Amino acid sequence: MTQPTLAAQLRAALGLAERGIPVLPLREGKGPMGNCRACRENACGGRPNMKTPGRCVCVAPCHAWAAATTDLHVLTSAAWAPAWRQAAAVAYHPGGTALTVVDLDDTDAVAWARQHLPETRTVATTRGEHWIYRGSMTSRNGVCPGIDIKSTMSYARWLGPGTGAMALLPEVVRALVLKEPVSARPAPGTFAAAPPSGGGACPHRSPAYLERGIAMAEQRINDATSGIHNTVYRTFLAVLSAHGRCGCLTDDHVDRLFAAARARGEGLRHCETAWTNARTRLGM
Questions:
Q1: Is residue 52 a part of any domain in this protein?
Q2: pLDDT tens by residue, 1-37
Q3: 7 with 52, same domain?
Q4: Which of 33, 93, 252, 261 could hold 68 in an S-S bridge, CB 3.0 to 4.6 Å?
Q5: Radius of gyration over alpha carbons of the chain, in Å?
Q6: CA 214 to CA 71: how far, in whole Å?
Q7: Same structural domain for residues 54 and 134?
Q8: Whole-structure pTM value
Q9: Would you say 218 and 256 are in contact if contact means Cβ atoms under 8 Å apart?
């Protein structure tokens, strides 16, 4: 790495740290720096306090996201200098500054987000976008095809401040990392749409927006290669989050979603349970 590039990476990191954003260097390939000799291959046993950002006990940037810090003295220390000389980019710990990044890795994932997630600040990436929300949550990769959640105990590459107003973290994003739906079970046959509250018209887009959303939900269920139970639940949750309170969702739409799920082998009882659990999750 040339000295001008080194200076630019470190300068960017220091600017973020001064704003209270925990940062760390990334090597070529967007990976974190390797652990120090004492911690290599987890010889240290994971180190005390590594679940807390900025509390890695190593003097070098060790343990990936756990090394993220806002301490300017640490960032400019001699121990961190070799890492900055190797650094190809700067990363930050979103959860350490009460943020969540929805990492959309391709155009299909971006299209899904535009249909199902509230608008928020976006940052262009090489192949997709980062959608950034205010609020932290559990991180998990691969919650949907091409979608990772980066918040606590994770890092995201810094690609600039982005554009747009930052929205509060919505329940539909939190639900993406759930391993299992909540356990409440409905009475058989109770799968009607939420009661209309918006006069029968969708206030945030148009009828075409709803139709695209239902079609994409059907496709998401059809395309699931594993975890069909969770895919059905998360899809129902996304549809209800976008349309469940505005009065435009009808029984015909619900029937289409149930039909897609049943075509993948889901029973009627599971569809009813997943639908009711999604409504419960959203307080409907």
A1: yes
A2: 444 455 788 999 999 999 999 999 998 878 888 887 7
A3: yes
A4: 93
A5: 22
A6: 48
A7: no
A8: 0.63
A9: yes
